[in-house]
Write a structure and sequence with these properties.
Blueprint (H helix, E strand, L loop, with lengths): L7 H9 L1 H24 L5 H29 L1 H21 L3 H29 L5 H4 L2 H21 L6 H6 L2 H13 L5 H6 L3 H12 L14 E9 L14 E5 L5 E6 L5 H6 L4 H5 L2 H15 L47 E2 L23 E6 L8 E10 L25 E13 L12 E3 L17 H18 L3 H14 L2 H7 L4 H14 L1 H11 L5 H24 L4 H19 L6 H6 L5 H32 L1 H23 L8 H17 L1
Antiparallel strand pairs: 1-3, 1-7, 2-3, 2-5, 4-8, 5-6, 6-7, 7-8
Helix pairs in contact: 1-5, 2-5, 2-7, 3-4, 3-5, 3-23, 4-5, 4-9, 5-23, 7-18, 7-19, 14-25, 15-23, 15-24, 15-25, 16-21, 17-18, 20-21, 20-24, 23-24
Length: 695
């Protein structure tokens, strides 16, 4: 396997998003091919068969989604992507060969299997392999590549439609060619998800994947280790080696993930300020789900501290900034079991490694601090109870504002040790849970120097439906399923359906006719141009989703969707000339499309891939994807009925109401997840649900 740089996660996301490019390609080609299929098989009087040819891929995607999640939790994400590419390839060959309608229907069903796997698993896979700081940007790649696929396919169909002997079999069969590239990438380039590997206890493989993706091997932070508690510490530099050091009562030692990192921490009695801050605010804030305010309190603290990026760990950088200088053997999993061998004597595959340098940390030594994203720092402390002897607690630290936070950051406490009486300290909230590291059989004067990595508890039990009853998972499912339902009923399919008619009214069809382009070719060209307009807006979303955040982008774009739909409704109610009507409708449709792909298009799948625990992420993603496909089918088949009963204004009025409901749902129910490690997100959901139940 090729050794990648720190940009490996970006390349992997692009390769995985090939599955969505093929989905977009198929959506466009079937729209063009069905016109020629009707003529060959004389389906003008059989609209049911015609509808089945188009919708069979939706049926296939819905069917395979019902079990794709649980299977991916069992055998891995990468094998399912390989299977997706095979479905694309085989379906393309069968469509190219199809001698009759019934074989074509089978081919379309196989095509739907490939689409369902790609749409369900690609966002999940990208989220599990991406660094938290650019996870949102990488998760817009599927939307971007899908639109590129549609543009390329419409261009191909348009060119072929200009010929007198256009073949629908070639239009559909070409799908097999790019699917070969997808298969090659999935087999020879894409690694398995490191989080899935950790959840199955395959620590050595996870280390190799992380080294390829991010230039690091620390797997200990990738698994939620059971029940999580919230604590708060006042953290000072480690003065243990100084001559005048006297350990205070209740003081404990925390160890960082890098060689030589350590702090002295004193627990703060009472409830964490994370929860206290989340309960403050206006009347509207009190109406929010406690989960939303809990997440929001963390992001508000980051803004108050003067930077959107981490103030705790100023040396943490973006994947786009290239490789950073790190101390030798900086990682908790990267060193030799003895901990004192030279660099050329170390073994990357060894599962034993020192947690800190065996020689200890010298007073005055400056050690860099590398965070895990979103202002969070990973640390450890030894367990003290007899039942967990030799174990470690994993701690996610997040700095709090307060009178104790005078020095500036936890990272600064790793610098020169302050003199007596200076009283420099940092106050931090901590999410504490069991770690996959343990100290059984550790040797040496400092026993924590050789931690043995053990499989996480979740590897002993498989995924079961009972896991969905956990409060945190249930809360996440409410968010995921809810936002998928609202996305489908927000009007995107209706606007897509109506766009060619609007542009025809605007005179585009007449202009193309004067250029010698037939009505069928003109419709393909119009659809291609409409899709092309989406690409710059998706680029804006790629830029903003990790800066402004998912929640803020939804709250900003949903009112624009609502306004554009209202304008479309009014333009069909208020009497006006054909030219003003066409101009207003065209502007509204373009604004709707561009705004949708900036927010409500990519963000629901991004959120759903972030908010579930690793052990049930595939199953929960499948439930959300199933909701997506069922909603897609319902909207697609009800739109013609709505148009014939309540008209265009009535149908778009319903979609406008859904957009308004969506805004309130996002405001009160959807938390902000930008920049936060997946493990922290899922632990927040678990804690927020427990806190909500307790209140």
């Amino acid at each position: 396997r090729v050794k990648m740089t720190s940009k490996g996660a970006v390349y992997v996301a692009i390769a995985a998003a090939m599955g969505n490019l093929l989905q977009g390609w198929d959506n466009a080609t079937i729209a063009g091919a069905v016109l020629y299929i009707k003529k060959e098989f004389h389906l003008e009087t059989q609209p049911t068969i015609e509808g089945l040819i188009v919708s069979m891929s939706l049926i296939g995607a819905t069917v395979i989604t019902t079990f794709s999640g649980s299977v991916s939790d069992a055998i891995g994400r990468r094998p399912m992507l390989v299977v997706s590419s095979l479905f694309y390839f085989v379906s393309g060959l069968v469509m190219f060969w199809s001698p009759n309608v019934y074989v074509l229907l089978v081919a379309r069903l196989l095509d739907g299997f490939g689409i369902g796997l790609a749409v369900t698993l690609v966002p999940l896979y990208i989220s599990e392999t991406a660094p938290s700081d650019i996870r949102g940007t990488l998760n817009t790649f599927p939307q971007f590549t899908g639109s590129i696929g549609m543009c390329l396919a419409y261009a191909m169909v348009f060119i072929m439609s200009l010929q007198s002997n256009a073949s629908w079999r070639v239009m559909l069969g070409v799908l097999s060619l790019p699917s070969i590239a997808y298969f090659v990438l999935a087999v020879f380039f894409l690694p398995e998800s490191p989080r899935w590997l950790v959840s199955k206890g395959k620590m050595d493989e996870a280390k190799l994947v992380l080294q390829a993706l991010r230039g690091k091997e620390d797997v200990s932070g990738l698994e939620v280790g059971g029940e999580t508690s919230v604590e708060e510490y006042v953290i000072n530099g480690d003065n243990e080696l100084s001559e005048d050091y006297v350990q205070e009562k209740d003081e404990i030692k925390l160890y960082g993930a890098e060689e030589g990192q350590s702090w002295m921490a004193k627990p703060v009695r009472g409830q964490s300020s994370l929860f206290l801050a989340s309960r403050q605010g206006s009347v509207a804030a009190h109406m929010m789900d406690p989960m939303v305010t809990l997440f929001g309190s963390v992001h508000e603290k980051q803004y108050e501290m003067g930077s959107v990026r981490s103030m705790l760990f100023p040396t943490f950088g973006s994947i786009f900034q290239g490789d950073q200088q790190k101390p030798d053997n900086w990682d908790v999993e990267s060193n030799h079991e003895k901990g004192n061998l030279s660099e050329d004597e170390t073994d990357d595959n060894n599962l034993k490694s020192p947690l800190i340098s065996p020689n200890g940390r010298q007073a005055g030594e400056i050690t860099t601090a590398t965070g895990i994203g979103g202002g969070w720092q990973l640390a450890y402390k030894k367990t003290e109870d007899g039942n967990n002897a030799g174990g470690l607690k994993r701690i996610y630290l997040h700095q709090e504002l307060g009178i104790e936070s005078r020095r500036g950051s936890i990272a600064s406490l790793l610098g020169p040790i302050p003199g007596p009486g200076e009283g420099d300290a940092v106050r931090a909230s901590a999410l504490v849970s069991r770690s996959v590291l343990c100290l059984d059989g550790a040797m040496g004067q400092n026993p924590i120097q050789s931690g043995l990595i053990k499989p996480p508890p979740s590897t002993k039990k498989g995924t079961s439906w009972s896991d969905l009853a956990e409060p945190g998972v249930k809360q996440a499912l409410i968010v995921g399923v809810g936002i998928q339902i609202l996305q489908q009923f927000s009007g995107i399919n209706g606007v897509l359906y109506y766009t060619p008619q609007i542009l025809e009214q605007a005179g585009v069809g007449l202009l193309l006719s004067n250029m010698g382009i037939g009505s069928e070719s003109a419709s393909f060209l119009i659809s291609g141009v409409t899709t092309l307009l989406m690409l710059p807006s998706i680029g804006v979303a790629m830029k903003l989703i990790d800066l402004a955040g998912r929640r803020m982008l939804l709250l900003a774009t949903l009112p624009v969707l609502l306004a554009s739909l209202i304008v479309l409704v009014l333009s069909n109610i208020i009497p006006m000339g054909s030219v003003p009507h066409a101009v207003i409708s065209t502007i509204s449709v373009v604004v709707y499309f561009c705004t949708f792909v900036m927010g409500f298009g990519p963000i629901p799948n991004t959120l759903c891939s972030e908010i579930f625990p690793t052990r049930v992420r595939g199953l929960c993603i499948a439930i959300c994807a199933l909701t997506f496909w069922v909603g897609d089918i319902i909207v697609t088949y009800t739109l013609p009925m709505l148009l014939t009963t309540i008209g265009l204004a009535g149908a778009f009025g319903i979609y406008a109401v859904v957009c308004a409901i969506s805004w309130f749902f996002v405001y009160f129910k959807v938390p902000e997840t930008k920049g936060m490690p997946l493990e922290v997100i899922t632990e927040f959901f678990a804690m927020g649900a427990a806190n909500k139940k307790a209140n």
